[in-house]
Amino acid sequence: MRKAILFTLVACFTQSAVFANEAKPVIGDAAKGKALSAVCAACHGADGNSVNPDWPKIAGQGEAYLIKQIKEFRTDKRAEATMTPMAKGIASDEDVLHLAAFFASQKTKSGTASKDKVALGEAIYKGGVMDTGVAACSACHGPTGIGNGPAKYPKVSGQHAKYIVTQLKNFKSGSRSNDVGKIMRNIALKMTDAEMEAVAEYMSGLQK
Question: Which domains does the chain have, with CATH numbers?
């Protein structure tokens, strides 16, 4: 099991190094993005802080990660009934850059965590689950949940717990498969529903 955890951690850091070396500067105009963001605001909020836990907070999310996700919705690499048609409705790839720049420039509003789940969630986030080979979330998402911009690993601090659980379950079932090297699918596959809920609550309560 220790070898499995070590392998996943090494994979995360290796992918980070590759992306750091290959990543090109992201050029988007936040002001232009704000002017284009009215349609996005209906679900994600005017500043990217959605109030509906089914929809993610995208305020303060990594710019490169936002671009990756939007473009993959536009090309059907990632599919979701509501977001796919919205992404395809964006006029151009240039507008995608502007929208990402705007939402990345906003500040994420803090979330809250269920006190009865924080201890387990923190243990998983920081140390994984050794018995089943679940790697520590902090290896890729950082100790404070800020993510890894060059590697396109998302910011998770302050995110809605319900949304996080949904994505973990989607990775586990394979209905979401746009993770590099199957990293998230391999991790989620080994997680129980209780572990997903606990770590999601902990992520939601992270302040950064």
Answer: 2-20+110-205 (1.10.760.10), 30-104 (1.10.760.10)
